[in-house]
Amino acid sequence: DWSMSAYRAEMQKKIREQVGTGRVICGLSGGVDSAVAAVLIHEAIGDQLTCVFVDHGLMRLGEAEQVVTLFRDHYNIPLVHVDAEELFLSELAKCGSDPEAKRKTIGRLFIDVFDAEAAKLGGADFLAQGTLYPDVIESVSFSGGPSVTIKSHHNVGGLPERMKMKLVEPLRELFKDEVRVLGRELGLPEAFVGRHPFPGPGLAIRCPGEITKEKLDILRKADAIYLDEIRKAGLYDVIWQAFAVLLPVRTVGVMGDYRTYDHVCALRAVTSVDGMTADFYPFDMNFLGRAATRIINEVKGINRVVYDVTSKPPGTIEWE
Ligand code: XMP
Question: Per its record, what are the GO molecular function terms (predicted)?
Fold first, then answer.
């Protein structure tokens, strides 16, 4: 792609100009955006970059391992893997059910953990982030209306003064589809580049209500089965984003001779161009039945599955 190879060269020039001989820390979230930003920056300034992967324990099944393998073994990019699950879960336990409290807590902890890692690394001058254009505008206003924040995106909004790190945000002008093109241009594996977007706050915003490790483990299993069925049906690339949500509601069911009283799992799948608007995906009912049966049979703790048929607007893609 000619325009993307030009963009790549231009951004690398800009990164070098901005950064000089400074040190850069890049937070990896496990998603495509931060990965593309990191690889782009590494190509521009080499080992002046250190990546920090704050593992908040809110990743999907097997995802943390994949990130570490890709960056350390494949790209040889200096990577610090911080296992912060306990810290995040204990602070999230104090948030109760409030979605904004969860997001703000996660955002604050990310910054705290970064701060600590930066200090351990002997300080850094810049913090790199994979902020995209839709993140920038959606944090500022909504549909041209008054300037209100619909959801606080943890990766937008600058840093506390005390960190004294300047931001490097090479993807700020790009939409998601353009980031994917750039990722391919940079040689990221197709399985990684083609991945559905994943929000910084991770599974915390797909687990309405109070967050516990037990619920997250149930959600991870259901989500993995759902995505497995989507891949088997050849639908993964047609869908913008698909995921399971574990509802804080229990309902009665029956399994064999037993009455069950377990969680409801909602399935979400949407098509979209940039995440700003979205349509729910019109699965065929046989597909949904198959996914539901597998989830209920294979995941202890779920006995009912529903499908979300809300588009955006009026819904958002995530449930919180
Ligand atoms: P919503 O739910 O606002 O999501 O319709 C639009 C897109 O943004 C993703 N999303 C986030 N990404 N940090 C992120 O990095 C966040 O806090 C966040 N919240 C939502 C969401 O997954 C969807 O792709």
Answer: ATP binding; GMP synthase activity
